[in-house]
Design a protein that fits this description.
Blueprint lengths: L4 H6 L1 H6 L9 E5 L6 H17 L3 E5 L6 H8 L7 E6 L1 H5 L15 E16 L8 H10 L5 E4 L5 H13 L4 E4 L3 H9 L5 E5 H10 L3 E5 L25 E9 L4 H15 L2 H9 L3 E2 L4 H16 L2 H6 L2
Helix pairs in contact: 3-10
Length: 318
Amino acid sequence: MTITRRAMIGGLAASLAAPALAQARPVRILVPFAPGGGADLIARLIQPHLQQILGQSFYIENRAGAAGRIGTDAVAKAEPDGHTLLMTTESSIVISPHMGVPMSYDPLKDFAPVSLLTRNVVILVVHPSVPASTLQEYIALARAKPGELFYASSGVGGPNHLAGEIFKQMTGLNIVHVPFQGTGAAIPAVISNQVGAMWGFLAGLIPHIRSGTVKVLATGGRERSPVLPDVPTVAESGVPGYEAASWIGLLAPAATPQPLLTRLWMGVDAAMQAPAVKDLLLRDGSDIVTSTPEEFRRVIEGDYAKYGRLRDLLKGAQ
């Protein structure tokens, strides 16, 4: 049965007051990537607000590996009692199933969506020593040194890996992919110049752009980011039609009782609207897109079909 936002909000007080979760047991938010990435940052940002709103203890667990599939599988197999949640990107939910890799869970059947949280533009940054200040200069450098430039990502099959592979396909460049176990592991590799560039999320990279430890060449949105208004998009920098963005959302194991999902959704929706959360996310370039479980499910199903149409590219990107 479809549950509307109005119906959920109408029952907010009663639902939050109900003892839906066993108070002695903390709720685990499992992030299937290394600390420091976008999903991890949002989980840690809303955790104290969820605790206050729901009167329940929450903690974060990072379980990285296989572009998020290891941690995602752990949640798929967890008890559907509201005490284990998954904070992830589309990597392990709608991209991995089309890469030809072994899957130990069904992303469309083994999870109950709680809420879509944010959409994030994917951007290209390089180490300050890379002799390119614009995307055009970077493209020229890559053409002059085929196979000699490297780019990092959060792992094979992640949205930023896909962003890099689509960029390579559209430009015909030979740039070598170096996967890491999450954005939080890839960023230090670029800062230390182990890898010269990376495609990553604006929200996670903006502090390093502002500090000067990396320099941004282009953003992957349809329009320039209001956070980086002077940085051109990839499309306007000579790669017309290019676009790369990613989402972050919260899910529970399938068969989690509807009253718990409703309670969790309303708690998350309230947490995302807290000024301390909202202001920070907007300042760092995230678009807040909190949705109902039914709305999030439609996004998952639509993106699953979209990436299915890119199956050949995804298989070739491994």
